[in-house]
Amino acid sequence: MQAKITVTETWLRKHRHLYDGATRHPFIRSIRDGNIDISAFKTWLGQDYIFVRAFVPFVASVLTKAYKGSDDGNGDVEVILGGVAALHDEISWFKKEAFKWGVQLSSIVPQKANQEYCRFLESLISPEVEYTVAAVAFWAIETIYQESFAHCLEDDSKTPPELKETCQRWGNESFGEYCNSLRNIVDRQLEKASDDVITKAEATLLRVLEHEVDFWNMSHRRT
Ligand SMILES: Cc1ncc(CO)c(N)n1
């Protein structure tokens, strides 16, 4: 029997080019090829710390929407709660890693692309944004990092040893399983969503992909 094609599958096929642009960005390729400029890595590290801090209230809002969405016989709340817990760990990791690289987190100024991405996250916190739409953004944000960093850990990669731990953070298998759980949540929601919500959710996915590309650009293009 042929498995049914899910909505996310349709979207990923349709927007493959933009999706690959986000998951196979020159910044990621430079890590994978081992010719990353360490100052670009440090820029990314400091900026991503700021992003992750803004990501926390967004994920909390998705959690709230999952809870209020009430027919949660599927354990959405627990999956998302796992994401919140992982973020707590992630923030400690950023502090440790920044210290290691001599990056002063307290003096980091968010760059324009980061500010715009954080503002976008804030707009999604609004109760007027449906659970389905917010969950699509959440799934996409996590999955782009998972796929990007997993790419740097493939057998033929030349990722510098000192960056392997960073790649492991998002590229590891259990983070991959978590992303799959998010995808299942999203597909289950989309299955019963109105056309209007599906349209909004797809547009939100595209915005996430664009913001992710801009975010990588911010680190990569600095000289
Ligand atoms: C910009 C960005 N996107 C996604 C993630 C994944 O959590 C992250 N840490 N930063």
UniProtKB/TrEMBL annotation:
Question: EC class of this enzyme?
Answer: hydrolase
**GO molecular function list:** thiaminase activity
Q: Which GO terms describe its biological process?
A: thiamine biosynthetic process
Quick one: which pathway?
Answer: Cofactor biosynthesis; thiamine diphosphate biosynthesis
CDD domains assigned:
TenA_E_At3g16990-like
Q: Where is the active site?
A: E212 (proton donor)
- Pfam families (alphabetical): TENA_THI-4 (PF03070)
* Record key words, sorted: Disulfide bond, Hydrolase, Thiamine biosynthesis
- Enzyme Commission no: 3.5.99.2
Q: Which GO terms describe its cellular component?
A: cytosol
Q: Which reaction does it catalyse?
A: 4-amino-5-aminomethyl-2-methylpyrimidine + H2O = 4-amino-5-hydroxymethyl-2-methylpyrimidine + NH4(+); N-formyl-4-amino-5-aminomethyl-2-methylpyrimidine + H2O = 4-amino-5-aminomethyl-2-methylpyrimidine + formate
- Every copy of the Thiaminase-2/PQQC domain together lies at 13-221
Q: Does the keyword Coiled coil apply?
A: no
UniProt binding sites for substrate = D48, E90, E142
- Gene3D superfamilies noted in UniProt: Heme oxygenase-like (1.20.910.10)
User: At the top level of its lineage, which domain of life is listed?
Assistant: Eukaryota
**PANTHER family given for it?**
BIFUNCTIONAL TENA-E PROTEIN, BIFUNCTIONAL TH2 PROTEIN
Assigned protein family: Belongs to the thiaminase-2 family.
Q: What is this protein called?
A: aminopyrimidine aminohydrolase
Output the lineage of the source organism. Eukaryota, Viridiplantae, Streptophyta, Embryophyta, Tracheophyta
